[in-house]
Amino acid sequence: MTDAATPLIRKDAARNRALLLEAAEDLYATVGLSVTLKDVARHAGVGVGTVYRHFPTKDDLLDALFADRLASATDSARKAAADPDGWRGLVRYLEDSMNMQVGNCGLRGLVVCTAPSSPLAVRSREEIAPLVQQMVAKAHQQGTLRPDFEAADVYYIQIALAAIIEATYHTDPYLYRHHLKLFIEGMRAGGHREPLPDSPESL
Amino acid sequence: MTDAATPLIRKDAARNRALLLEAAEDLYATVGLSVTLKDVARHAGVGVGTVYRHFPTKDDLLDALFADRLASATDSARKAAADPDGWRGLVRYLEDSMNMQVGNCGLRGLVVCTAPSSPLAVRSREEIAPLVQQMVAKAHQQGTLRPDFEAADVYYIQIALAAIIEATYHTDPYLYRHHLKLFIEGMRAGGHREPLPDSPESL
DNA sequence: CCCTAAACGGACCAACAATTCCGTTTTTTG
DNA sequence: CAAAAAACGGAATTGTTGGTCCGTTTAGGG
């Protein structure tokens, strides 16, 4: 085997790749998905060509970048799903996942994104969905969650709060927690007096 | 006066302006703020030059377009503020304003927009803010609103729900009403047992 | 009917982001 | 150390969008 003798990539290439990921991590987290690959290159102190040699396309960079974030989101969901108290697990998962998004504009963009988005994000959602499903089912059995709450609602709450974070994190990064509280109160079993009509025509 | 004798603009100009507004209305509502002025021109059956003669910049078109929408939002707020029952007014205002956004992608973009956005949208917000303030104050006096709910929260709820609508209206335009319900339940006075810690560090 | 000014259409320009290409530099290895 | 391979930098290309310019057409008063 030549694997020890000849490293698969040259030393400088490896260094630049690391530099690139670091710079991209930094920029995407603080600025968001709108950063240019030219920006990333400059931030890393290399040329654009180098970026494209390591990551054939912008999405490839993003995938490499968010792979671990998304993995840790799945982790969080797994832990939450393991909680014997469905309600508590659900609340913790919401808290964890939103907390993760406060510090990372790019991640937010990825989550809120309506478009097909990166296959990575899609896969992550597919991994997490059954876990959320479990929490919701458990909470329903335990009678702590309002009966008309569905697993998909968790995802929509995340989208909603991401939008609030987007609008407020400059001023007050944790303001969103107040609205998270509001949502959580709304999720509770036993609250729904005076139901809203299902479609506004009836108003 | 020559106003009756010589119309301020030529007949064809007037017709094209109307055509343009109609086309823009249509496109912005169904596609969103991303439509190109070239698209609008094509849709209206005129050249781009004509668009720019009538509306020097894209924002001018948008302003002309959304002026009446925003006015009707203010109306809705005024009516809601007039309701002697603060809670009911608040709920109605939320319902009205969100219902307005379901059918109009462009409007949604304008509302959610974090950036300075058009001066028109800003003015509209400034007009509506004191009305919302009134509703909230009244509901607080009447003890129907949770004590830590502030007027600004109404705006954030709108942003949050707009994001949900954005993600779901293709599939089910009124799904957002379910989440509106959740928010409304969370707004109620008397719900907040087990408060969330204010910042996640404590978790 | 004809002339003038207003209005028109769309080619053209500038700015910007993604991506490609290629001559030059660096690493590796014999 | 020298040559080949691998990687590099950044100019150039492509595609897109907001916006301008100007030669041509048309409305409408005399």
From TrEMBL, chains A, B:
Known InterPro entries for this protein? DNA-bd_HTH_TetR-type_CS, Homeodomain-like_sf, HTH-type_TetR-like_transc_reg, HTH_TetR, Tet_transcr_reg_TetR-rel_C_sf
Which GO terms fall under molecular function for this chain's record?
DNA-binding transcription factor activity; transcription cis-regulatory region binding
Regions recorded as binding DNA? 36-55
Keyword Lyase in annotation = no
Q: Does the keyword DNA-binding apply?
A: yes
Ranges for domain HTH tetR-type: 14-73
The alphabetized UniProt keywords are: DNA-binding, Transcription, Transcription regulation
Q: What is this protein called?
A: TetR family transcriptional regulator
The scientific name of the source species is Planobispora longispora
